[in-house]
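User: I'm writing a short report section on ligand binding and want a predicted complex to refer to. Could you take this sequence and zinc ion and write out the structure as tokens? A short remark afterwards would be nice.
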Amino acid sequence: MNLRSLTPIYILLVFLNFIGNSFGHSSVEVGFFVYDEDQSYIKTFTEQNLAIDHPNSAGYELYGPKGLEQYLKDLKLEYVPLDEGLDKNFGEYPYPEEIYSRLKILVDQNPDILQSFSIGKSSKNRELFVVKISDNVAIDEFEPEFKYIGNMHGNEIVGRDMLVLFIEDLVNRYRAGEKDVVNIINSTEIFIMPTMNPDGSATKSRGNDHWQDLNRNFPDFTTSDNVNTVKGREPETQAVMNWQKSRHFSLSANFHGGSKVVNYPWDTTGDPAPLTDLIRDLSLLYASTVPGFYDNPRFAQGVTNGFRWYHVDGGMQDWSYNWHNDLQVTIELSNNKWPSYSEIPNYYQDNKKALLSFLMKIHQGAGFYFKDPLMKGKVKILNAINKDMGAFVFEKGEFYKVLPSGKYTFNIEDQEGRNYKLFALVTDQITYPLIPNLQLIKK
Ligand SMILES: [Zn+2]
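Assistant: Sure. The structure tokens for the complex follow:
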């Protein structure tokens, strides 16, 4: 049968034979590489909440519930099961608990700059472990807040173990007095979550213990799931959402595997995201120093807009940027999702410079704080030629935004209708000593 003769209605009927489609969730019990050169089925699969990943010129990865294979057979599509779903050889990789103990020892030895805590529990009751790195680490200082999240897809392991090495290396370089590292730790609140999906990493699975794809599980401003509430979402998603709400992150990245590229918002629509040029510059900064990124023949200069590559609804980066003013990119670290554990130090060496230079870019921005943590309200930012750079809300007395270099006016209105004006200079040259560009506003 000619594939193109299948009507969408027929396809939908076949699909509904084996699954009651659950809204806002992507079950990822099985995975296949589907040969579909002209990508004619991507739209249909996406609409059915099947998870597409890493399209290339031959086809793409497709994940879904049990029964997906029969569906592909019915559609007469060619496919092969993905090795990663079958090969449960873990190599030398530590379990999540071993990573936590290793980091807890480091935290205990460095209580002045490290703190660890859990933001919640996974579906299988594992801790969702975070390390905070900052001077005066026990105090919530008025400093820009940055985060890295690894291993959202459990079988994409490189980010998890690379972030452990990054934490250890930052501590060593701080102790050695390396200027960049000392200044960034002293002027920033850095949060690193090596694994957002410990259950998936412990079973080498893409999804969590409920077989759900966490990077399809966030609110999405282009779909009917467009309310920023945790209800009905996976425990790992809820934990990240609640954590984000409690902080003021303004720059972040999350790590994946399966390609070598920095993927920037939006994923969910072809419309340009606000400050796309800035986001692209930050992505290029990361990609420019990592072997295999900048010279990746598939992606010019090692970066791509997410939607242009493939459409994702419910992804974390779009949610983060849209609802929380936290500019986030998605970094694909390795062609092989589960390389030998002995290769992790090489991945770290390759990404070492980029990890720090991207983090330092959080200081290309400006913001303000009130001493009163109950202050909240609205802020409108204008650039030097009065161009509207966006309107935002602020909470808990603090606001910070990463911006292109230039001069800005912040028009602030608090919850009682009082107005304040703030003038800020943002420069793309990160100079030392690094003082956070956060100005105190007096009531
Ligand atoms: Zn992934």
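A remark for your report: The chain has a mean pLDDT of 92. The chain is about 30% helix and 25% strand.
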